[in-house]
Amino acid sequence: MTNDHQAIPATTGSSSAIKMGVFTLAMINVSAIVSLRGLSAESTYGLSSAFYYIFAAIFFLVPVSLVAAELTTGWPQKGGVFRWVGEAFGARMGFLAIWLQWIESTIWFPTVLTFAAVSIAFIGTNQRWDEAVSANSVYVLAMVLIVYWLATLLNLRGMRTSGSITKWGTLLGTVLPAAVLVLLGMIYWAMDNRIDIDMSPGKFFPDLTNFDNIVLAASIFLFYAGMEMSAVHVKDVRNPGENYPLAIGIASVITVLIFIFGTLAIGFIIPKSQINLVQSLLVAYDRLFEFFGVKWLGSVIAVCLTFGVLAQVVAWVGGPSKGLLEVGRAGYLPRLMQRTNRNGVQMSILIIQGIIVTLLSAFFVILPSVQTAYQIISQLTIILYLIMYMLMFAAAIYLRHKEPNTPRSFRIPGGKFGMWVVAGLGLLGSLLAFCFSFIPPSQIPVGSPAMYVGVLLIGAVIFVGIPLIIYACRRPSWADPEAKAEFEPFGWESHPETCTCAACQDKRNCNRGNQGNRI
């Protein structure tokens, strides 16, 4: 979903199906979250970026993976995060959670597509001209909208078209460029060339007395976002109790190493004072290729990265919106938002999604620079996604206490204490990152600090408030009878005697379902 997300191939588990091995699952997890788009921002930290990557992996990546695996195997019915949060805190909070998963990916599109616009600009051979074009806000806006609506049209044609693009785009647009960046960067360093990062061991630990050092680092948490969607595969793993945690460990190490060495490779060749959030990755490729005498490869990598971004967007234009449609058809969205085309694609939601993307993209013209708009929209994405994650971690803890006997083929080891440690670390890390996300980073020009914070606060209130208003206005006529029949009720709806809400003597008045109160 990081929120640089990659497509997760769907599978269905069965006893007769071929079970996945540890390495296969590890690679699926790596492809789910590895992206190069955000490495430039973290290269401003130098060697201490490695500290932040490891910190975020411990406090976020591993907890998300393990918690999602337990929730997936305990509550595998339709709905995903809607089901998990709804089982714990009621349908209102469940709807908020899945809405946030959808809307954060919608807000994320302008930022990832900015990277696509920059990649397209760098297909040329004149670096100075490429940098000037990619910094032009009108050009960026035009390219963002062209690529986004192209991805939407491809999704409207159905999964057969979008699936092929996603498969090859992930390989050629993410895996290959990542390997090239890390390999050339490490060779450059090993050849004892002058580098623009102080690699002395003492620089690994940041100066945590300087508050500015931890503000921009909050964005690292979103680098690891999306692992919860790969948890569906836990049912297809041999001996999930042992192999799933091992696969998570392998994937985490590989992911952290790619991020660390990719970030350092950029910092080796671009001074901190020249780092640009939307250009530096492409500039780093150009400089490395020039050093090794293969400058022409810069255009090739730019094409690959552009294709990779298109694949990401194609996958994510249709992904979360499909989950929202499933929940919406059970009676949580107006009929207008449930319309599909002849290919069964969620046409109304995709059009609404496109309108939001178009409006947000206007920030590239309104705000002082492309970099400022990029940072603000990125932070809003982080804020909304972290709210969803906090709900997920809290639900995991709550359900381990209130529904300990629900069968789960994977359980976080250590009993309730183990759940508190793992989910508690994730909840604490998410809360800290959420708070830091509102503070303007001193390393990046964002214009007026008051405007920066104001835009984030207003955006968060609006996008959290909309699903709560929709939920309050829902009507029985919104439900599609066929879809509602296939959508399994929550456990507390089927068995109200397990709910501690006094009103559950009459299911229709249950606070959990109708008022969304925690019980």
General description of the model:
This protein has 519 residues and is mainly alpha-helical. It has one domain (22-268, 278-463): Amino acid/polyamine transporter I. It has helices at residues 22-33, 39-43, 48-74, 81-89, 91-121, 127-134, 137-156, 159-190, 212-215, 220-223, 240-269, 280-291, 297-332, 347-361, 363-366, 370-402, 415-436, 449-473, 481-486, 491-494, 511-515. Helix 4 (81-89) packs antiparallel against helix 5 (91-121), helix 5 (91-121) runs antiparallel to helix 13 and helix 5 packs across helix 18. It is globular, with a radius of gyration of 23 Å.
Number of beta-strand segments = 0
The biggest sheet amounts to: none
How many separate domains?
1
CATH level-3 fold name:
Amino acid/polyamine transporter I
State the distance separating the first and last CA atoms: 30 Å
Q: What's the gyration radius in Å?
A: 23 Å
Q: Architecture, CATH level 2?
A: Up-down Bundle
Q: Percentage of helical residues? A: 55-70%
For CATH, the homologous superfamily is named as Amino acid/polyamine transporter I
Structural class: mainly alpha
Strand content: under 5%
**Low-pLDDT segments, ≥5 res:** 1-16, 500-509, 513-519
Order of helices and strands: HHHHHHHHHHHHHHHHHHHHH
